[in-house]
Amino acid sequence: MSSTELPPALATTVTPKASAVRVAAGERLRSVGLPGITLSVRSRPPARAGLPPALYVHGLGGSSQNWSSLMTQLDGLVDNEALDLPGFGDSPPPDDGNYSVTGHARAVIRYLDAASRGPVHLFGNSLGGAVATRVSAVRPDLVRTLTLVSPALPEIRAQRTAWPTALLSVPGVARLFTRLTKDWSAEQRVRGVMALCYGNPNRVTPEAFRDAVEELERRLALPYFWDAMTRSSRGLVDAYTLGGQHGLWRQAERVLAPTLLVYGGRDQLVGYRMAQRAARSFRDSRLLSLPEAGHVAMMEYPDVVATAFRELLADTDELTSSAAVGAGS
């Protein structure tokens, strides 16, 4: 058994979630208790019974909310669930304090095993893309298709705009940054993040901006916010240095699931030039290049990403299977 694989969870506790986290119309939020972790899971009631399950994994500093627009686009096609990784969104820190890529992958595997939802259509963005790649490599039985939006896979020469994120992994930097930015408002911080993550920040609606500010204010008040950010950043940097069978590019080569790769031409965190290497590494892949998109194409262009996913299903006969399930329900 791989170090990332875990036996099925012995018990799971599912309770409705009551929190300050925004829940969009048609969404539900619940808390799932598993050995060593508690995960907050966002879902949309399936349009009909029998739809194939999908699971979405967010990036560093993100949350399950990052997938709300895409989940809406895919209503009626899949049974949507998005989780908050341990220490992010509305999920508390893991009991063992493990924020490595492997630790996050274990959380995803633990949830899928306990929920018996696999194989799923697995989605990942940024850090979540690295996590989803590892899950797909070590547990192919859990993954039906894989969709990666700007996956955080190792780059020899990272863009300068990505250096501050990597620097968070250096001991003491997060504390220093917190001290230097103590007078920044949540609005200033959100504008900075959106300028970094969006190809065109003007695509963000006033309502979405307000929601992001409220969410950041809530998260900044959490005692573990910076610890989760710092340790997850360090875990990602550590994953970049792994060689052999545990290296992320080597694991990408082991992925069996049909894979959709989405890269943005204005991505300031993951190099657009990495798209071709990814297309060569994932054995059954197709590439969607969006020249105007940034790091979060599923938020900027959810309709375009949804169309590409439908085409992936059509190419792999998954769309036909899903339609057959609907006709028989």
UniProtKB/TrEMBL annotation:
Keywords: Hydrolase. Coiled coil: none annotated. It comes from the Bacteria. Gene3D superfamilies: alpha/beta hydrolase. It holds the Pfam family Abhydrolase_6. Residues 55-307 form the AB hydrolase-1 domain. Signal peptide: none annotated. One of its GO terms (molecular function) is hydrolase activity. InterPro entries: AB_hydrolase_1 (IPR000073), AB_hydrolase_fold (IPR029058), AB_hydrolase_sf (IPR050266). PANTHER family: MONOACYLGLYCEROL LIPASE, MONOACYLGLYCEROL LIPASE ABHD6. This is Alpha/beta fold hydrolase. It comes from Streptomyces lutosisoli.
